[in-house]
Amino acid sequence: MLEPVSAAHRLQAPREMGFQRLLRETGRRDATTCPLRPQADSVKRARDVTRSTLREWGLAELGDDAALVVSELVTNAVRYTRYSARRFDDHPITLMLLRLAPHVLLAVSDPSDEAPTPKEPDFISEHGRGLYIVETYSERWGWDALEEGGKAVWALFATGR
């Protein structure tokens, strides 16, 4: 029987490989990447890619929670890309899903170096709830600076398998 592995240990793999390298790799069966434009309709595209990837991996039960989290992460990426000093063409927004059984890592990279900062949620306002939602629906979340600038904000989901 395999020993259980902590979420923190699972995150070491993408960190040691580097999110930058993972974002550039294609053709992996355990990963999906999707470049996104800094516009509002990218949020729907990201949700659709997330749900379809999880279905392909036999993890459709994670679809709603993961789609909600990816909506928040992509919305933030689109918002902060507008204020980034870097050109979007050099540092696009990218959605990545990585299967690290028994977890799925969902990450959204963007060209902004600004660290995501949780705010006290205001349930009346349109803003301020994003990272609260990410924290509530994922097992763990965080962010990492990318080697070439920008950041990847990630959320980890337990699959139970």
Brief descriptors of the model:
single chain, 161 residues, Heat Shock Protein 90, 5 strands, five-stranded antiparallel sheet, disordered N terminus, 37% helix
How would you characterize the overall build of this protein?
The chain has a 5-stranded antiparallel beta sheet. The two termini are 13 Å apart. The chain is α+β, with helices and mostly antiparallel strands. β4 (140-145) and β5 (151-158) form a beta hairpin. The chain has helices at residues 7-17, 19-24, 41-56, 63-81, 130-137; strands at 31-36, 93-100, 103-110, 140-145, 151-158. The protein has a single domain (7-14, 29-158), classed as Histidine kinase-like ATPase, C-terminal domain (Heat Shock Protein 90), CATH 3.30.565.10.
How many structurally independent domains? Answer: 1
Percentage of residues in helical conformation: 25-40%
Number of strands: 5
Shape: globular
Which value, in Å, is the CA radius of gyration? 15 Å
CATH topology: Heat Shock Protein 90
Low-confidence stretches: 1-7
Main sheet record: 5 strands, antiparallel
Note the beta-strand portion.
15-25%
CATH C-level: Alpha Beta
User: How many helices in DSSP terms?
Assistant: 5
In the CATH hierarchy, what is the architecture at level 2?
A: 2-Layer Sandwich
Strand order in the sheet with the most strands: 1-2-3-5-4
Order of helices and strands: HHEHHEEHEE
Instruction: Return the structural class.
Output: alpha+beta
State the end-to-end distance.
Answer: 13 Å
CATH H-level homologous superfamily name: Histidine kinase-like ATPase, C-terminal domain
Oligomer: single chain
Mean pLDDT, rounded to whole units? 80
